[in-house]
Specification:
The chain contains nine helices and nine strands. The protein is of the alpha/beta class. Helix 2 links the parallel strand 2 and strand 3. Helix 1 crosses helix 6. The longest helix has 23 residues. One of its GO terms (molecular function) is ATP binding. This is RNase adapter RapZ.
Length: 288
């Protein structure tokens, strides 16, 4: 059976991801206590379900500790288990909870030294949830939704659906350092030392996917040198990530604004590795 487990920090987009998979025709269950996961798999197999999508989070805090071992056991039994972990910066989460006026799932917990009338603050709830989920975050692929629109998150989840049967999916992701390093990055490369098309008024409106910028960067010797260095590094260490049974590897390339140099490098790297690997391209600061 193919099992997709959606988890992560509250407010980071788990409901959106679950709806995408529901719309794609998958059998989905929300807010399942982890201790019931293996029984659910057994029953679903008897019902002829081929792909099962389960969402779980800190609302099931008491049984989260057993989740890593349950996932390992399911894999040992021959099931294909993929974990999608959604996260976001604390600033983005505070803004989202303020906009929706929703309470955090852990807001009704109290600290041991307080009386029942006291409640954790929103930031305390977010920090407590991060601590609860720290052992789960490394079990699969992480998406940082801090600066993602709803539509972009939907597209990224759909991309994962298309690659879920690959042994390892190689993600190349461009980003802007001025917005911070993405939380979902496994490898990070800084290309801000390269000539910046932004300073040419004729090139500024374009992105690294457009031919005028491509021509400009192709003409710069140091661009080719850095591209080759990054490609060589990724190619050298990719077998080690595969041996570590990784399902996804996210290579993040950053420049100042996330529009020209990082986008160009991601596109070029994706073309190179697409010849031998399952590749997905992401551009955080572009609208596509």
């Amino acid at each position: 059976m193919h099992i997709i487990l959606i988890t992560g920090i509250s407010g980071s987009g788990k409901s959106i991801a679950l709806r995408v998979l529901e719309d794609a025709g998958y059998f989905c269950i929300d807010n399942l206590p982890p201790k019931l996961l293996r029984a659910l798999v057994t029953n679903s197999l008897q019902d002829g379900v081929e792909t099962l999508v389960v969402a779980t989070d800190a609302r099931s805090a008491d049984s989260l500790a057993s989740l890593p071992s349950d996932i390992a056991q399911l894999k040992a039994e021959g099931h294909d288990v993929k974990v999608l972990f959604l996260t976001s910066s604390t600033e983005a989460l505070v803004a989202r909870f303020s906009e929706t006026r929703r309470s955090h799932p852990l807001s009704h917990r109290i600290r041991p030294d307080q009386n029942p009338a006291d409640r954790l603050t929103l930031i305390e709830c977010i920090q407590a949830e991060r601590e609860l989920l720290v052992e789960i975050e490394g079990l699969g692929h992480t998406i940082d939704t801090s600066d993602l629109s709803t539509n972009k998150l939907r597209r990224w989840v759909k991309d994962l659906i298309d690659t879920q049967h690959a042994s390892l999916t190689l993600m190349f992701e461009s980003f802007a350092f001025k917005h911070g390093v993405p939380l979902d990055a496994d490898l990070v490369f800084d290309v801000r030392t390269l000539p910046n098309p932004h300073y040419d008024p004729l090139l500024r409106p374009f992105s690294g996917r457009d031919q005028p910028v491509i021509n400009f960067l192709n003409s710069q010797p140091q661009v080719a040198d850095l591209l080759n260095d990054i490609s060589t590094f990724v190619a050298k260490w990719l077998p080690s990530f595969k041996q570590d049974n990784r399902s996804y590897l996210t290579v993040a390339i950053g420049c100042t604004g996330g529009q020209h140099r990082s986008v160009y490098m991601v596109e070029q790297l994706a073309k190179q590795f697409a010849e031998t690997e399952q590749v997905v391209v992401r551009h955080r600061q572009l609208n596509y």
